Amino acid sequence: MGGRRLDRILDFLGEVGGSDTSLDWLCGICAQELGVSGAAVALILSGHDPGAIAASDEVAAAVVDLQFSTGEGPAIDAHRSRRAVLERDLSSSTRWPAFAPEAVAAGAAAVFALPLQVGAARFGVLILYRDRPGPLGEGVLTDALAMAEVACEITLGLQAQVPPGSLHEVLDRLADKRTELYQATGMVVVQLDVGPEEAVAAIRARAYATDRPVGEVAADVVARRFRFDQDGTVAPPGSPQP
Prior knowledge:
Strand order of the largest sheet: 2-1-5-4-3
Number of domains: 2
CATH class of the largest domain: Alpha Beta
CATH topology of the largest domain: Beta-Lactamase
């Protein structure tokens, strides 16, 4: 990418609107300049559940959502390890047995996750995907790490050129989705008489089995459109609710 081009990108960030708009634009620049098919910025607000706040395209957003649905994937590993996770060929990967085949089906052949962190603070991941197998070159990885630093600056609002007041709305929307999952988890804990981790696993399993987003399943639980029986099946609507 080169220092001058990166400087131009940084200069342009002050002209593209709010923080969330800047992140969308940055994802598009990653796809254009890094030789990948798309990119997404995902926040990890609690534990290890990523949620996309910006994406260059639907496949990039799906790569993030699939990791939330399956509870595994490169973004989760990068966040936990504080290191870049680079998977050049998802079709032959055995690291994520639930995530990998779904990501391939969605159109991602290779995925690269770079943690967003400042000091000891970890809060998200920059995810790049390619629609064909292959590694990031050494020079490309260096540029990608630089773009991750830019994503950090935008997300945290550390630069005066990032207009205040827009990012918190994005975070609030993402937090609302997580709150619904937490509410659903509490209900499933009662319904199945299990711990929170087992309850989340049951919700994710249901989403995976029915090919639906986790958020939709959680919303149905909270709205009492269905419940989980003691044996893990779903009771019909109208069954007694806790």
